[in-house]
Specification:
heterodimer; A: 191 residues; mainly alpha; Four Helix Bundle (Hemerythrin (Met), subunit A); 75% helix; B: 159 residues; alpha+beta; Protocatechuate 3,4-Dioxygenase, subunit A; 4-stranded antiparallel sheet; 3-stranded mixed sheet; 7 strands
Chain lengths: 191, 159
């Protein structure tokens, strides 16, 4: 219940942004896909760490996959919607020549998220030892999270500043906690 | 000023001025340097925006100056094109674009709708693209999205 509220409040706050009055539906959709992505980034470490009450490890793992797929879709909608709204700004961002510093952070986070998702999808195909694979996946996820938080905090957009900051702090602390709990840096074989 | 006109304070101030001038304006001898185009300045540019009295309903002022590189002389009658994401439209919308001419002092002022943050920053776009001088695209950022005015200055290089 508390988690649903944590995810919903930033969305509700953004829905009350005065900026929405001056934006087309596609631009608004792109913005909300971004806000939702940040919420999904909070769910991912909680599911990976299996700390959500009432969810079995199997259910947590399945949700982690589906939230990951949803996150990739949300990022594609975010970038696609911005592309439709202003193609040259998105091209600049993708080629790292944008005048806005947050763009590069967002683009790096996007590619890291896609790579982390691909590692997830093709885990069986890679002949990596589990803990080595996990270090790769969580390393990419860490880049995604840090990149996304910096990206969001530097933007003056529809997200309300208090709820944005709170959500970013929660994402960072949930991620740090899961990484520490799983001791992801330890790639020795389990004895 | 009465008494000594060469006090310790004036000496320090004068010396400081010489140092600051020397550090900040090393190109003085070569004249006023031309303004380079800014990253992203030409995004959503629509060439040939009409000269207008005002863009849309107004309420916000875009101001600035246009000078010639080298001697820094003000350039009158230069056409500056202006566009932005405002309360009345996106950057790409034709009604968000307009142009104005500099006055005898090389200054321009164009009233336009309030600029609102778009793509993460409250910013405007300006272009000099008339051919007599090198083309320059600027993308100034507002210090606060509540500002009611934004300034941009051009120093143009003759072609």
């Amino acid at each position: 219940m508390a988690l649903i509220a944590i995810l919903a409040v930033p969305l509700i706050a953004a829905a009350n942004s005065p900026l929405l009055a001056w934006r087309d539906p596609v631009y608004i959709l792109a913005g909300f896909a971004g806000v939702m992505s940040m919420g999904l980034l909070l769910l991912q470490p909680l599911l990976a760490g299996r700390v959500l009450p009432g969810l079995s490890p199997m259910i947590s793992r399945r949700w982690h996959r589906w939230v990951g797929v949803t996150l990739v879709a949300a990022v594609l909608i975010h970038v696609g919607g911005l592309w439709v709204t202003s193609p040259p700004d998105v091209v600049d961002a993708l080629f790292f020549v944008s005048p806005t510093p947050f763009s590069a952070w967002g683009v790096v986070a996007m590619w890291a998220a896609f790579a982390a998702a691909l590692l997830g999808v093709f885990r069986q195909r890679f002949t990596l030892r589990y803990r080595v694979w996990r270090l790769g996946h969580t390393g990419l996820a860490t880049v995604t999270i840090i990149g996304s938080v910096v990206h969001a905090m530097l933007i003056e957009g529809t997200m309300e500043i208090m709820t944005k900051t709170a959500l970013c702090v929660l994402v960072l602390s949930a991620s740090a906690r899961t990484l520490a709990r799983l001791r992801v840096w330890d790639t020795r074989r389990r004895s | 000023m009465t008494g000594s006109s060469f006090t310790r304070r004036s000496l320090i101030a004068g010396g400081g001025a010489v140092i600051v001038t020397g550090l900040l304006l090393p190109a003085r001898a070569a004249g006023v340097a031309p303004t380079p185009s800014m990253r992203g300045g030409s995004n959503n540019y629509r060439p040939g925006a009409p000269i207008v009295e005002q863009i849309g309903g107004g309420g916000f002022w875009m101001t600035g100056t246009v000078r010639r590189a080298g001697d820094g002389a003000p350039l009158p009658g230069q056409r500056i094109q202006i566009w932005a994401h405002t309360t009345e439209g996106h950057e790409r919308d034709p009604q968000s674009h307009g142009a104005t001419l500099t006055d005898a002092n090389g200054e321009f002022r164009l009233e336009m709708p309030q600029i609102v943050p778009a793509f993460g920053q409250p910013h405007g776009h300006l272009a000099y693209d008339s051919g007599e001088f090198e083309t320059v695209f600027l993308r100034p950022i507002m210090a606060s999205s509540k500002d009611k005015t934004l300034a941009a200055h051009f120093v143009l290089q003759p072609v």
